[in-house]
Amino acid sequence: MLGRMSNGASATYAQSPVTRKKWRARSYVSLLLFIIATLLTPIAVIGHWGHETIANPEQYINTVGPLAEDPRSNKQCRTRSATRSSTKSTPVRSPAGSSV
Q: 54: which DSSP letter?
């Protein structure tokens, strides 16, 4: 057992710079790049979808166009529009009166 460690590796191998467990600059840079890629991937996917769907007028019309012909969506839009216009024109008084 001269020069051998308990797990079978030699002392020279255990002291080799390749087997050290220290974090070096390359490790930090690779971790940073991994984190950046992980954070940017969903943003890139959503951006690509938006560009392909919304920025392309033909695709946008094909996606949203059937809603304009649907009577239920037209009724819902008219209801929301009427509700919003009536709430904006209605004055709101303070519950405490004019003392506040």
A: T
Tell me: the pLDDT tens digits for 38-80?
Answer: 999 999 999 998 888 888 888 888 877 887 788 887 787 777 7
Name the pTM for this structure.
0.41
Buried b (16+ CB within 10 A) or exposed e, 73-100: eeeeeeeeeeeeeeeeeeeeeeeeeeee
Q: To 10 degrees, what angle do helices 57-69 and 25-53 make? A: 50
d(CA 44, CA 36): 12
CA distance 32 to 55: 32
Q: Which residue has the tokens 């304009």?
A: 68
